[in-house]
Structures are given as structure tokens and as C-alpha cells.
Amino acid sequence: MVDPENTPPEKTHMFDNPRNIKRVIYVLYALCAITFAADAFIHRHIDHPWEELFGFHGVYGFVACVLLVVGAKELRKLIMRKEDYYDD
Amino acid sequence: MTSVAPFLIFYVAAALVAVTRGWMRGAIMIALPIVGAYNLYTFPEATGITFALFDYQLEFMRVDRLSTLFGYLFHLAAFLGVVYSLHVKDTTQHVAGLLYAGSALGAVFAGDLITLFLFWEMLAISSVFLILARKTARAGRAAMRYLLVQVLSGVILLAGALVRIHETGSIAFDFIGLEGLSGWLIFTAIGIKCCFPMLHNWLTDAYPEATPTGTVFLSAFTTKVAVYALARAFPGTELLIYIGATMAMFPIFFAVIENDLRRVLAYSLINQVGFMVVGIGIGTTLALNGAISHAFNDVVFKGLLFMCMGAVLHMTGKMNGSELGGLYKSMPITTGLCIVGAASISAFPLFSGFVSKSMVMSAAIAEGYPIVWLALLFASAGVFHHAGIKIPFFAFFAHDSGIRTKEPPWNMLLAMGIAAVICIFNGSYPWVLYSILPWEVTYDPYTAAHVLTQTQLLFFSALAFTILKLTQIYPPELPGVNIDAEWLYRKVMPGFVRTFLATFGPLDKSIRNAAVGSVKGIIGSISRTHGPGGIMARTWHTGDMAMWVLILLAAYLIFYYL
Fold first, then answer.
1. Sequence-distant (≥ 6) Cβ neighbours of residue B457 within 8 angstroms
2. Is residue B419 within 8 Å of residue B301, measured between CB atoms?
3. What is the DSSP string of B286-303?
């Protein structure tokens, strides 16, 4: 590692600017909107009855991730211990 | 050129590596997987190498499309691992890594159960040194637990093999199925190495404790040998579908809250093996092709992710999400390569996971397992969440941890670069991989519907992450351990033994003290009479003796007249 006192001030990086973070988020919103809308134009082969739902994979992915995170948070309350838990 | 059993080439090279140093050693290590792969290429199909042991013929070399594919895969994994670890000076790690890779090759070409058992145990014994080489007390304890579990798996396999010989008179390692005691024993032995639920903790315990380069080797071989063995011995076993779906589901919850990023990848490894196990359980040609091609892709992209995290650990000495962040500033190339690995495991179109995981999922829906299909879809979203986003995000972005470092050594970057190229190549030109699969592939991953549904799933998963992060619902990275099934043998059993000793120890001690005391008392009383100066040990005068004889005779006379 370099000695911070003897190095010139660091150049600013891409995500030091909050606007760039906003841009990435907007691109993501746009991609979600496009793929969701594309459901209307691309004929999907229906394998599972739930797939008939418009934008099923998007909705399912979103709900799955929210359930995953909320579930994992609850799980953490139950199973999280201090780092030295197993040390004797 | 006469062909040689692949494991033998690796074992000989390991011996050579042990006695060489510097560029000579590097040259041997680089040449080894290339020479080995050429040897496999020239190996004539349907010729085996056999060896007689008592009444049985051990078959060291069974060459068919299934074993050959895994053979090439392990040569590739060994090559990536060797390049990645070229800068390491530690002889133990190099020798262990090559013996380990050679043992994996020995296991996949084993045509009988005894040979399989030999290499099964060699896998355990050689790989444990990759964990011990970390040289911390913590790694040492994890290594011992790892070794115990692995050797146990081998012992169960041997028991299964012996029962099977008794039942069928044959040691052949072919389709076995869940019939009879031997079937269940062999199934359990493979299940331990394959990380079936509740038998999985050896992996999440030991892999994150190994050296940065050691984990890359570890992630490639043991579980994939187990996947191969399942595909050989238990294809179409319905139980595997449910076991696999569970494996795909539960680790993602642990992965979301785990702080050690290599442990996140370890949970993610189990999740990916879950998809393969489901494919083997379904057992149609589409499902088996899916499982095997996913094993191939997983070795490369999971290897790539472990290499990226290994590079971070190597350069910063840190691996916890709570201590890292902002490394994209000083490690931009590593960041880019990590994102390729993340996109591949998440199955983005044009990346390798996309073309293999979907075969298993298509097979699940085609064979009438809609609930399993929904579970796998949930797991797919979850993979993207914890491996696709969490790994790169908390290591390279998130809040700036203030750590400023450099890119890792060139050989690490090269290995990661090659792995990234393979990820993109397999994703973009899947037909090359498909052409070496055991069965003919008619599946086409690049339909408009598949691309749409998959991108929709992934983008909305990313959206969920973003919203949860912005609203601060997303759990922060916190130092700590999460208890899992290992709690039983790391806490409950030692605790039980301690309580048992604390309760019965004093009782046992008092009983033994009493026993010792009574023995001492007996010895004391004997020594009082018979010891030096004791009444029985005194020397008596002859006169005393005559006197006593006189008294006895007198007494006798008195009694006689009475």
C-alpha cells in the first residue's frame, strides 16, 4: 500500500460523482421498462400457467429477491452470533 | 506415443515439482495440463488400463464421452489453477494442488468401486494441505474438520463397495440406483462430497479458510467429482430432484447475510451444484446434458469468482464485505473480470451460465415438475442477487473503504483473463461445448422468449436490490458468524461432551479415589504385619520357638483331658 501522506491528491473516480450513480440507476429503470414492455411484442411459449401473467418473469424476479432479502434478515436475527462464537 | 493414465502424469509431475525450483518448476507446471490433455486426446476409446488385485480386476481407465468430458474439464481447471498460483513459492501448495487434480482425474476415469475409493481418499488427503497452507490456527482447525468429514465419506463409500461386492459379486462402477444397503451407502458417500443439505458444512467451513490459490483448486474438483459420480451411478433417481432443489434454495439465504465474501461464494457453489443435482435426478438426456455442461461452466465461472476474491485477499489481506469497498479505483481490471464471472453465474445472455442452467430448467418443466421449476427460478433470481451483485458490489463498489492497492501479479490476471474469455466463449458459442456432451443436443438457448424472460428476471432482480439498498431495507454487511448445520458438531456435541465430563468427572474421580484409598488401606495393613519391623517379619530365637511348641503341647494335653 502507498503512503497516503506522500502521494498527490487522488483523481476522482467514476462513482465519486453521485450523478454517475444516478445515471446507472436510471439505465437500470429503463432496461426494466424495456424488457417489461417487450413482453407485449414477443410471443412466449407458455410452459407454466403462471407464465400467462404479463411480465411474469420480471414480477417473479422482483418478488423473489424481496422475499429473499426479508427472509435472510429475519434469519440473521435467529442465527447470527459473534465472530468468536466457535472459538474455545 | 503410448497413452498413460492421466492421474499418473500428474503424480509424476507433482514429484518433479517437489524437487525443482524457479523457472524450471514453472515450466513443468504449465506444461503438465497441456501434455496431459494431449495424452487424453490420443487415448484410444474403449481401451482400458486394468490391474489385477486378488480376484478382482481394477479398471484405472474407463474412457467414454462422460469421463472424457470431465477429464478435459479437470485439465482445464488444473491449467487455470497452475497459472493463477505461479507466483507462490510454497512447495507444499504446488505439490498438493497437482496431486489433488491428479486424484480427481483418477476418480473420473475409475471403472470400479475400489479404484474410485482409492482416489476418493486421495482427493481428501491431498486437498487438506491447501487449507493447512494458510498457516493460521483457525485454518488448521477447519482443515481437521474437513479431513474428518472427507475421510468419513470415503469410509462409507468403501463400506458400500464391500456390501455391493457381497450382494452382486461385481465391483463395477456403473448405474447403481437406490436399491439395497449398498446403494444407500454409496449414495450417502457421494452425497457428503456433493454437499447434500445438512452434509454441506465442510465446504462452507473449510474453503474460505484455504489460501487464496488453494480455494481456486478446491472449488474445481471435489464437488465436480461427486457430480460425475452421481451422473454415473444415480441418473434418474427422483429423490435427487428434491435434494437438488433444496440445495439450490437454502444457501442463497445464508449467502445474503454472510460477510466473508469467499464464504458467500462457497454457499453459492452449493446452490449451483443444486442445479446439477436436479438435472441428474430428472435423468433425461436434456437434463443430464444440462447438468454436465453446467458443471463445466461452473468450474470456470466459479473459479473466476474465487480467483477475483483471491486476488483481493492477496493484495489487501481482507475478505469481509464490511471491511472492503471502493476497490474499483485501484483494481479496475480485476473488477471487470469479476463482473464477467458474476454475469456468467447469473446466466446473462452471451455468458456461460445462460446456455447450461436453462437446459436443466427446461427439462424440469418438460418432465412435469412445475414446483421444482419455480424453485429453480427463485434460485436463479437469488444467484444474481448474492453472487452476481453482492460479490462485485461489496468488494469493488459500495462505500469507499479507503483501501488503495494495486492489481494482482500478472499470472493471476492472466488466469482470470483466460477464465473470463472461456465464460464469454461458452456463452456466445455454446455449440462447441454442446458437441462434446455425452448425448446429442437439440436444445437452442437463444430463442427470443428465453432471452427476454431471462433478462427480465435479472433486471427486475437488480431493481429489487437497488430499491432495497436505497430504502436501507437491505441488511448491512456485519462481522459475525451465522450458525448452520455445523452447529451440531462444532457447538452442541463439544458442549455435550464438556457437560458430560463436568457432571460425571467428579463422581468418577470420587469412585476412583475411594477404590485407590481402600487398596492403600489393605497395602498399609499388610505392610504393618508383613513389612519390615512387622510382627510377621521379625526374626525369632530358636528358644522362643521351643517355648511356643511347649505351650501348644500343654494346651493340647489340657484339651485332651477335658
1. A57, A58, A60, A61, B377, B380, B381, B384
2. yes
3. HHHHHHHHHHHHHHHHHH
C-alpha cell at B86: 505461479
Predicted local confidence at residue A84, as pLDDT: 83
Dig out the grid coordinates for B336 from the structure. 471487470
Query: Which CA distances in Å does B124 have to A63, B104, B117, B198, B363?
Result: 41, 10, 11, 19, 33
Among A12, A86, A88, the residue to mutate for chain B (most B Cβ within 10 A) = A86
- What CA–CA distance (Å, rounded) separates B462 from A32? 9
* B453 in A contact zone (CB under 8 Å): yes
Distance (Å, whole) CA B415 – CA B217: 12
B189, B212, B234 - which closes a domain = B234
What per-residue confidence (pLDDT) applies to B46? 61
Query: Region B146-156: what's the mean pLDDT?
Result: 95
Residue showing cell 461427486: B226
Residue range B334-369, pLDDT digits in tens: 999 999 999 999 999 999 999 999 999 999 999 999
Are the C-beta atoms of residues A58 and B460 closer than 8 Å to each other? Answer: yes
Q: Is residue A56 part of a domain?
A: yes
Pair B247, B179 in one domain: no
Task: Give the residue numbers spanning the domain of B140.
Answer: 1-234
Helix (H, G, I), strand (E, B) or coil at B118: helix
Note down the domain range covering A73: 4-79
A75 is a domain residue: yes
pLDDT at A7: 58
What Å distances lie between residue B15 and A80, B18, B172, CA to CA?
45, 5, 31
Chain A: closest CA distance from residue B465 (Å): 7
Tell if the CB–CB gap between A50 and B374 is shorter than 8 Å: yes
Where a domain ends, among B193, B218, B234? B234
Is B457 at the interface with chain A, CB within 8 A?
yes
Q: Does A77 touch chain B (CB under 8 A)?
A: no
pLDDT at B100 over 50: yes
Partner residues linked to A33 by β-bridges: none
Q: Are residues B217 and B284 in the same domain?
A: no
Amino acid (1-letter code) at residue B189: A
Strands B481-482 and B56-59 turn out to be unpaired
